[in-house]
Amino acid sequence: MTAELVRGQNHPVSRSRVEVRVSAGAPVLALAALADEQGRLAGPEALAHPAAPARPGLGVPGVAAERHALTVDLDAVDADVHRVAVVLALPPGGAVRFGAVPAPYVAVAAEGGGAELACFTLTGLDAETAVVALELYRRQGAWKVRAVGQGYATGLPTLLTDAGLPEAQAVALAAAVLGATAPLDDADRTLAAMPTQVRDLSGPGDAPPRNTARQDPALRDTAPQDAVPAPGTPAPGPTESLAPPAAPYAGPPGRAQAPGDTLGGPPPIDYAHPRRRRTSTEPPEPGPRPAPAAEPGQPPRPVAGDAAGWSLEERLYNQVWGMFEDLARTVAAYRGAVDFADARLDRELDDALSDPRHRLGGSGNAARDTARARRDELVAQARAVLDRDLVQLAAELEVVEPALPAAYARWDNPVWHGRLVPEEAPLALRLGDLSLPERPDLRIPMLMRFPLERGLWIDNGRTGSEAAMAMDTDRLRRAAMDMAVAHTVRLLAVQPAGRFSVHVIDAAGAGAASLAPLVKAGVLASPPASGAAGVTGTLAGLTRRVDLVQMALRAGAPEELPPDVDRAEQLLVVHDFPHGFDDRAVTQLRYLADEGPAVGVHLLMVADRDEASAYGPLLDPLWRSLMRLSPVPDNHLADPWVQHAWTFAPDFPPSGSRVMEQALERMVRARRSRG
Question: Is the pTM of this model over 0.90?
Answer without folding.
Answer: no
